[in-house]
Design brief:
The protein is 38% helix and 16% strand. The protein has 467 residues and is an alpha/beta fold. The chain has two domains: 303 residues, UDP-N-acetylmuramoyl-L-alanine:D-glutamate ligase; 145 residues, Mur ligase, C-terminal domain (Protein-Tyrosine Phosphatase, Chain A), CATH 3.90.190. The strands form three sheets. An eight-stranded mixed sheet has the order 4-3-2-5-1-6-7-8, sandwiched between helices. β10 and β11 form a beta hairpin.
Length: 467
């Protein structure tokens, strides 16, 4: 029986969840991968994952953004939509959403307490689930209680053995966003090995939408789809981005307008609040995944007017998010070289600012040097700052790398993110640009600080609505 939530239940739920090993904050390479614990936990919860049909996404870049866009599109088509994401940026409740709104504390606590109660039984039996597994089970429990029509799931890491990849999950459409090198110590040290791990979400005769990929990766994914009898819809073939325009001159926060085509629908002049070529590509992939699900479930194609309303104002936390105005302060959670390239290209194409400062902090297990080599040369000054995660408290490696390899770029160590943002913004002028990047954990701290800078006209309206 579910525990009834009280004002103190939310903190109790967080405490109980935190008692399980969280490899996101420690070392992901030490995770004991396997689906047995997850299968057992869900069975004891009375199999909530079987309640609603699912959309399942994997990839290295853009899977969170794409999942958001899919959920918004399916909601616009009239479906009550559950969305499960990882990691969060500021608030843990960001991971479990109904119609793209995070669960309230009571609903969140009810499901976490239900899952942790049974997870504790498994721990006592000598098979403790991980933090991510318990949270994933909590999400399924919540979606069943909320009686959603569809669940959109983002994998945590990899695909084949990810906790979201339950064998009897009722998947009606799968999507794989761009694959690049990341978590090589777990997934493999080349794109082909990583692609094979991500391909583990491909299911028998379930339609697969493949986002923008290298030719080698595309071949691997298409081959696996052929082996499973999965219909395939590919970026650049069955999915086409025919035109992209924007943002408006002198308004880099005005988004873009795109024309998109799939095998069953065509959309012109769709407004997209998200910035960058990569987000236009994510939107096309999301449209394809949405259409694949709707087709598989016997529903008509998306209407352009509904898609326009769904995406026009959809902003995502820490995805090249404009958090403060003049000087422009952009928060981005890029934490691998491929995402750093996307951020760099978008900034150069979108912002005319000639004076730019970088606030940077990265987890110890990330490719710190490669990211700094991409980002640092675009900025006149770099501020290195830690963040609260155990893997982000020591930033000496980044500082030493900058001083040894980019001695011409003034680099300063700063004790915390808010102070770094203040220093970076000072002296830039109204048209200057600050980028905060390197980690989603740092992005969360930066967003929280930006809300404290509440001077009139300094922040976009959506920030005032953050929890």
């Amino acid at each position: 029986m579910d525990k009834v939530s009280t004002p103190n239940c939310y903190q109790e739920a967080i405490a109980r969840l935190d008692s399980f090993t969280n490899y996101e904050r420690l070392d992901p390479s030490q995770t004991a991968f396997g689906l047995e614990r997850m299968i057992t936990l869900l069975r004891r919860l009375d199999s909530p994952h079987l309640f609603a049909p699912a959309v399942h996404l994997a990839g290295t870049k853009g899977k969170g953004s794409t999942a958001f866009l899919v959920a918004a599109a399916l909601q616009a088509s009239g479906l009550r939509t559950g969305l499960y994401l990882s990691p969060h940026v500021e608030n843990l409740r960001e991971r479990i959403l109904l119609n793209n709104v995070p669960l309230g504390e009571n609903a969140f606590a009810t499901s976490v307490l239900a899952a942790t109660t049974l997870a504790e039984e498994l721990r006592q039996e000598g098979s403790p689930p991980t933090y991510f597994e318990v949270l994933t089970a909590s999400a399924f429990h919540a979606f069943r209680k909320l009686e959603v029509d569809v669940v959109v799931l983002e994998t945590g890491l990899g695909g084949r053995l990810d906790a979201t990849n339950i064998p009897d999950l009722r998947v009606f459409a799968s999507g794989i966003t761009p694959i690049s090198l990341d978590h090589e110590e777990i997934l493999g040290d080349n794109l082909e090995d990583i692609a094979l791990e991500k391909a583990g979400i491909i299911r028998h005769r379930v339609p697969l939408v493949i986002g923008q990929q290298t030719e080698a990766v595309m071949r691997i994914l298409a081959k696996r789809a052929e082996e499973t009898g999965a219909p395939v819809y590919r970026f650049g073939r069955e999915l086409r981005l025919t035109q992209r325009r924007g943002p408006l001159p002198d308004r880099p926060d005005s988004g873009q307008v795109v024309d998109l085509e799939t095998w069953r629908s065509r959309h012109r002049d769709i407004s997209l609040a998200l910035l960058g070529d990569h987000q236009a590509a994510n939107a096309l992939t999301a449209l394809g995944i949405s259409e694949a699900f709707l087709e598989k479930t016997g529903r008509p194609p998306l209407e352009s007017a509904k898609l326009e309303r769904a995406w026009r104002h959809l902003t995502l936390p820490a995805r090249l998010e404009v958090c403060l105005l003049r000087p422009w302060t952009v928060v981005d959670g890029a934490h691998n070289p491929a995402s750093a390239w996307a951020a760099a290209e978008t900034l150069l194409a979108t912002f005319s600012s000639q004076k730019r400062h970088l606030v940077f902090g990265a987890a110890a297990d990330k490719k710190v040097e490669a990211m700094l080599n991409i980002l640092a040369p675009l900025f006149q000054k770099v501020f290195i700052t830690p963040f609260a995660s155990p893997r982000g408290r020591d930033q000496r490696r980044a500082l030493e790398f900058m001083r040894a390899n980019h001695p011409d770029i003034p680099t300063q160590a700063v004790a915390e993110a808010g102070e770094a943002i203040n220093l970076a913004r000072s002296g830039l002028g109204a048209e200057g640009l600050v980028l905060v990047s390197g980690s989603l954990y740092l992005a969360g701290e930066a967003r929280a600080y930006c809300r404290h800078l509440a001077a009139a006209g300094k922040r976009p309206p959506h920030l005032s609505k953050l929890p």
